[in-house]
Amino acid sequence: MTLNDQVPFGGVEFADNPEPRCPCVLLLDTSSSMSGRKIQELNSGLHVFSEELRSDPMAAKRVEVAIVGFGPVQILQDFVTADAFAPPTLVLSGDTPMGVAIQTAIKLAADRKAAYRTGGIGYYRPWLFMITDGAPTDDVTSATAAIKEGEESKSFMFYAVGVEQANMQRLTEIAVREPLKLKELSFRELFVWLSNSLGSVSRSHVDDTPALINPTAPNGWAVAG
Amino acid sequence: MTLRRSSTPPLQTGGPWRVDALMWRYAQACVTGASHLRSGLECQDCIGCSVLSDGTLVAAVSDGAGSAPMAKAGSAIAVSTAVGVLSAAIEAGTTDLVKSLLDTAKACAAAVRAAALENGCTPRDYAATLLLAAASRTSVAVLQIGDGVVVFKDPEKDWAWAFWPQKGEFINTTHFLTDEDAFESMQVGVFGENVQHVGLMTDGLETLALQFATQSVFGPFMEGLIRPLQQADHLLEAKPLSDSLCGFLCSERVRSRVDDDCTILIATNGSPDTLSP
Questions:
Q1: Are A63 and A82 in contact (CB under 8 A)?
Q2: CB of B3 within 8 A of CB of B48?
Q3: By the CB < 8 Å criterion, does A72 face chain B?
Q4: Which of B116, B147, B203, B261 has the CA that lies 20 to 30 A from B171?
Q5: How far apart are CA B217 and CA B159, in angstroms?
Q6: Are B254 and A13 in contact (CB under 8 A)?
Q7: Closest CA to A21 of A201, A207, A210, A208
Q8: Contact A80, A46 (CB under 8 A)
Q9: For testing contact with chain B, the best of A2, A7, A9 (most B CBs within 10 A)
């Protein structure tokens, strides 16, 4: 009996296709009010995010991370696959041009989707995830409209998280999805949740709506209302 | 889980699909994906096959929508109705195969909707894709709603696909039999002049069987699957190969690439290869 008789399909070759991608843009407030423990915990949280993603073999290959800091608005990290993501260290800067930051993130995600399409790479709906402790210091009218349009057309998903004295009312006006308030400075828990959520999305199959853990549950990172 | 239809060996009878003593040999497998195993979900794919008295191979695969609570029932109804209705139409001597395919799709949609109504569910609860093929030695007729792919081979040419898998903008979206606009997105066609091999698979195996960048079939994958079947000396289903195929789909090699339910049917109408001693 030959080896082939024993293992008829053992030697079948597989096509070499790129992994589908799950793009995530982090919009991070680095304004001067984020000083002290806030920026420290946020930086630690980014490292946790990177480690958590890397510990999930499928997420490591599929999740792509970009970072837009504000203000001023800077692309601190262009899209990189999670397994190659080395978090930049955030430093405090100026004010809070949230409107421009949001528009920048939306464009970043749209350009990335176009690049995927050109390369024949499949992708999941992008996540735009904003963390801020204040209120916008620029005009957010266009950004608000762009978020509404993007959510309605299912182009992306936009989440806003308020830290400490963040103006939650303003965030509610800007975002379509209800903004959440970070419980104290539990950035670590937030980023564990985010990496798990992205991991679930990145392995979701046709029509799966991945069940995301409720962040406002008792052990969660957010407080409701 | 597979859904099998009892079939009779091919007879040399007349009919509009006049074929010679056609000896289809096939293998099929349908396995639960690792992600469904982890979340305790059952396999939501279904598969069905029948060889008719005139030698036509009728086969269908269906993938239930992940979030649909009755996905498994939806795919099972789609497959059993598809194979049953199309087989009956061909046995009755249809001269318009495309019309028969369209009528079959309508019957599948109606059957699923009826089941939904009976169980107090919405049709969406039963959402599933549908790939249906009727193959002879001279052509393969295909109907497709959603993703997955039907591939076939002419002995003189490379492997070809009937319809490229339909996705929405995002990789985890597609069309379902139960969609309001299912019949707009449905694709129907008759292919080939000389068909020796046929394969049907749900989307889990697309990444192994297709080359996305060039929109082509990855020949070596299909060749690797067909070769043992060509060497098998069975009538109709080569059951040991179906079992091996099942084992292959559950192997570490496949699981490291594919998290999803995997379903495939491969068939050949060539004579068994005689191995040199």
A1: yes
A2: yes
A3: no
A4: B116
A5: 6
A6: no
A7: A201
A8: no
A9: A9
CA distance B217 to chain A (A): 9
Residue B165's identity, in one-letter code, is P
Alpha helices in B169-218 (DSSP H): 182-185, 206-209
A3's enclosing H/E stretch is helix A3-6
Q: How far is CA B59 from CA A37, A44, A187, A212, in A?
A: 63, 55, 53, 37
Round to whole Å and give the CA distance between B62 and B144: 10
DSSP assignment of A38-71 equals HHHHHHHHHHHHHHHHHTSHHHHHHEEEEEEEET
A8 interfacial to chain B (CB closer than 8 Å): yes
Query: Would you tell me the crossing angle of helices A37-54 and A187-202 to the nearest 10 degrees?
Result: 30
Q: What is the DSSP string of B48-117?
A: EEEE-TTS-EEEEEEEB-TT-TTHHHHHHHHHHHHHHHHHHHHHTT-S-HHHHHHHHHHHHHHHHHHHHH
Looking at residue B93, its amino acid is G
A12 to chain B, any CB pair closer than 8 A? The answer is yes
What string of pLDDT tens digits covers the 225 residues of chain A?
344 445 789 889 999 999 999 999 999 999 999 999 999 999 999 999 999 999 988 899 999 999 999 989 999 999 999 999 999 999 998 899 999 999 999 999 999 999 999 888 999 999 999 999 999 999 999 999 999 999 999 999 999 999 998 999 999 999 999 999 999 899 999 999 999 899 888 877 766 666 677 888 777 888 865
- The per-residue pLDDT for B160 is 97
Q: Name the minimum distance, in Å, from the CA of A185 to any CA of chain B.
A: 32
The SS3 assignment for B246 reads helix
> Nearest by CB to A17, which of B68, B211, B244?
B211
Q: How far apart are CA A162 and CA A174, in angstroms?
A: 12
How many secondary structure helices (H) and strands (E) does chain B include?
Answer: 8, 13
Chain B CB within 8 Å of residue A153 CB: no
CB of B143 within 8 Å of a chain A CB? The answer is no
| Bridge partners, residue B216, by sequence | B211
Chain A's closest residue to B256, CA to CA, is A58
